[in-house]
Design a protein that fits this description.
mainly beta, 5-stranded antiparallel beta sheet, 24 strands
């Protein structure tokens, strides 16, 4: 944004374009579109008079050879000069059996940060804040064997916040004891390759029937199957690109959960 109530919207130039139009409105509303022209072949326009801290949707079309073309697909922007944390910078550590520590790159504009999280399969978010100046937060009281979704946003002070990051996940791992020699066993489940594009291989280190459940980032079950072989291949061609969580259950109880990326 130029300011909290202005946004400079730009796009790639098209050959032979004589003019462009942008239409915009508040996202997820039935408000009428506001239409503005870019002024000749300019490939940007400054939208003014916007509401602060709101999401807008917009589409662009070009006029070529005297005729207007179709509008582009919907794009969105958020009216706040408070920057969103970099989700790709988040590091995840596990300081205890029911704890996770999230750390991300600091932002100079930040006074503090807000984190919201929930266990997959639930609908309500828990929102907590970091200490002033801290670019990390430890969350305690989590359920071993469960996978959680989380999002982070920046608090720039004065009631100004960034947009939340996209949803990402972390898993609180189960500790499994070997009662014969009293030490923690290695993972009971291996998946490879990761990331995967066509086929995901699953190797189990236990015998008997095992249920495998794959969920998308929103917790929706996209695949569920009971297997009995120690090595099994899943065809994941039909899955969309993104992050997924694979859950391994024995007798209805979660043995282990792992995350993988579909290319």
């Amino acid at each position: 944004p130029v300011t909290n109530t202005e946004m400079l919207v730009g796009w790639d130039a098209l050959p032979d374009a004589q003019n462009y139009q942008v239409r915009y409105r508040l996202n997820n509303t039935f408000d009428p579109f506001t239409v503005v022209g870019a002024g000749g072949p300019n490939t940007s326009v400054n939208l003014t008079g916007l509401d602060d801290f709101r999401v807008y949707e917009y589409r662009v079309r070009a006029k070529c050879n005297g005729e207007w073309g179709n509008y582009s697909s919907v794009q969105r922007f958020f009216t706040s000069t408070c920057p969103t944390p970099d989700l790709g910078s988040v590091a995840i550590n596990y300081p205890g059996p029911d704890k996770v520590k999230l750390t991300w790159n600091p932002l100079s504009e930040a006074v503090r940060y807000q984190i919201r999280y929930r266990q997959i399969g639930t609908s309500s978010w828990t929102t907590i804040g970091s200490a002033p100046g801290n670019n990390f937060k430890t969350i305690a009281g989590l359920t071993p064997g469960a996978t959680y979704q989380y999002r982070i946003r920046t608090d720039c002070g004065g009631g100004t916040f960034s947009q939340y990051t996209d949803i990402s996940t972390f898993t609180i791992w189960l500790e499994r004891e070997n009662h014969k020699n009293n030490h923690v066993l290695e993972s009971e489940l291996d998946i490879f390759p990761n990331p995967a594009s066509d086929v995901l291989n699953i190797q189990l280190h236990i015998d008997g029937e095992t249920q495998i459940i794959i969920r998308d980032i929103n917790g929706k079950v996209v695949l569920s199957k009971i297997i009995s072989n120690r090595i099994h291949q899943f065809n994941i061609n039909q899955l969309s690109q993104g992050q997924y969580v694979l859950q391994c259950l024995v007798n209805g109880k979660t043995l282990e959960t792992k995350r993988f990326v579909k290319l």
